[in-house]
Amino acid sequence: QVQLVESGGGLVQPGGSLRLSCAASGFLFRYYAMSWYRQAPGKERELVADVTSTGGSRNYADSVKGRFTISRDNAKNTVYLQMDSLKPEDTAVYSCNVRWRGTDYWGKGTLVTVSA
């Protein structure tokens, strides 16, 4: 059974940093690309960043380029999202995603609130 469990969210001031983690189980993590999505109140879910199975290629939404970094540790079955220079508009529930055998799986998400 595929499971994705996010952690690391919280309240942070503008300009601050947070590091999100997503622990994966139930599939061969090292063979699959992973993604981070976010959904702000009243808005549609959007792709934030993704990383290939080896970590050799990463893509970012224009809104987070230069501020967020996605990485993974295949020995720990974990994907990370380092978020720096946070802005109020980054406030959202952040979820990790894997497409396994043609089906998308999501964690429950972790709330990030950027506010003074």
Question: Can you tag this structure with a few keywords?
Answer:
mainly beta, four-stranded antiparallel sheet, 116 residues, 53% strand, 0% helix, seven-stranded mixed sheet
Brief summary:
With about 120 residues, this protein is mainly β.
Estimate the strand proportion: over 45%
Radius of gyration: 13 Å
Strands, count: 11
Unreliable spans are none
Structural class: mainly beta
Alpha-carbon distance between the two ends: 40 Å
Mean pLDDT: 97
Shape: globular
Count of runs of 4 or more consecutive helical residues: 0
Main sheet, how many strands, which sense, barrel? 7 strands, mixed
Q: How are helices and strands ordered from N to C? A: EEEEEEEEEEE
Helix content: under 10%
As an assembly, this protein is single chain
Provide structural commentary.
The chain is mainly β and 116 residues long. It is 0% helix and 53% strand. The chain has strands at residues 3-7, 10-12, 18-25, 34-39, 46-51, 58-60, 68-73, 78-83, 92-100, 103-106, 110-114. Strands 2, 4, 5, 6, 9, 10 and 11 form a seven-stranded mixed beta sheet that branches. It has a four-stranded antiparallel beta sheet with strand order 1-3-8-7, with no helix packed on it. A hairpin with a 2-residue loop joins strand 9 (92-100) and strand 10 (103-106). The radius of gyration is 13 Å and the shape is globular. The termini are far apart. The mean pLDDT is 97.
